[in-house]
Amino acid sequence: MNCFPDEVIELIFDYVTSQRDRNVISLVCKNWYRLERCSRKSVFIGNCYSISPERVIERFPELKSLALKGKPHFADFNLVPRGWGGFVYPWIEAFAKSKVDLEELRLKRMVVTDEGLELLTRSFMNFKSLVLVSCEGFTTVGLAAIAANCRFLKELDLQENEVDDPKGQWLSCFPDCISLVSLNFACLKGQINLGALEGLVARSPNLKSLRLNHTVPLSALQRILSRAPQLVDLGIGSFVHHPASETCTNLKNTIKKCDSITSLSGFFEVAPRCKNITSST
């Protein structure tokens, strides 16, 4: 393949999406190492202490997407002492100083602070996706900064995080015109501003996936569905209404009118029998 121009080889490399395969490609020869280095857009690091952020930036200068894991998996069972580490702020700071155009950040079992999230919003103008899984240390103040300043945000996914909610108004910080495709805040325990939520959904014509927490009532769900018939995935934290109630009946009828929905989560007992629904829990 070395007989091909570098541009052709780079195009071929673009079709190789597996991180492991990309690593193997870079070991073939010096030329492939160079081309792979400059064309790699995403990196997964299974241990945030296995390499420094500066080395990652040097190795992959055109990086757009970063996935990081912090604490070991047994931290989920409270078997890791407090203060163990797993801080993401040094990574955000290093990327910000190097002026990497980061667009996507996926973190698992990391310590995330509001200061780190605010730095993220100030440093990466084209930021589009934030996924936090089993993270801690941040509040909805940091989420408000993400909502207000990341103008091209497409995905905000919060899974099993410990989040403090001192104000409960972070949803109202989203701008008037947004490109949001996926929103998941099912792990939040605080009350949600229903007016801000409904307004956000109405301003998000591209929204496909919406996962809500247990404080959103079924009556609000009905209004949300009427404003977002394009939803494909809808979830709510818990269901406490009687399946035969008028509220549930109205919700069923609304869901039946939404031909695009294929997945319902959190209210299995009231899920209507629709051919298009392939997943219901």
UniProtKB/TrEMBL annotation:
SMART domains from the UniProt entry: FBOX
Cellular component, GO annotation: SCF ubiquitin ligase complex
Residue ranges of domain F-box in the record: 4-45
Keyword Amino-acid biosynthesis: no
InterPro entries: COI1_F-box, F-box-like_dom_sf, F-box_dom, Leu-rich_rpt, LRR_dom_sf, Transp_inhibit
Gene Ontology biological-process entries: auxin-activated signaling pathway; SCF-dependent proteasomal ubiquitin-dependent protein catabolic process
Keywords: Auxin signaling pathway
PANTHER family per the UniProt record, alphabetical: F-BOX/TPR REPEAT PROTEIN POF3, PROTEIN AUXIN SIGNALING F-BOX 3
Name of this chain's protein: Protein AUXIN SIGNALING F-BOX 2
Lineage of the organism: Eukaryota, Viridiplantae, Streptophyta, Embryophyta, Tracheophyta
